What we know:
InterPro entries: Acyl_CoA_acyltransferase (IPR016181), GNAT_dom (IPR000182), Trichothecene_AcTrans (IPR052523). This protein is α+β, with helices and mostly antiparallel strands.
Amino acid sequence: MTQARRATQPDLPAVVGVLSEAFFADRIFRWIVPDDEQRRRCGHLFYEVLVEAFWRNGEIWVAGAGKGAALWLPPGGSLVPPADAETLAARLLATTGGAESTARMAELFAALDAHHPTEPCWYLNFMGIDPAAQGQGLGSALLASALGQADQEGMPAYLEASSPQNRKLYERHGYETMGELIVSDSPALYPMWRLPVG
Length: 198
């Protein structure tokens, strides 16, 4: 059975690469940055910034020799100190390469912030599997990594699924869909909540 492990610093370039590749065709990312060439550039830059922040203040897990990666924020955690939040957001927004894409990303960020639970929880920010390695249990291994800890701690877990297919995977691991989140003409995101088991 595939096992996940916490990433080490040498894993970080592979984490950036697998997340960039996994989300290249994602319908939400395609809505933010419609141009394929720009989206490929944007994805790499975006995940470089995000992975750097998670390396410092979150948890990064890998599975399948780096073919899968997950970015988790533990309960009560903060990706950056509050004083640095605007700087991080600005760095992420700057990756889009165009005013319209920046505006769409900013609108989505605002909606995600507004709908984020106020109670402490394990938050799965991103999980991606190399398209060539999908269906091999890597997603389940990455989920089990933090959800086992959440269950031990009696903590709930939260995420936003970016597609109906992803939503089904998360439902198999105990998440329940809380509704749909749509900004302007974006595809739906699905906020999902999981109560601790046991």
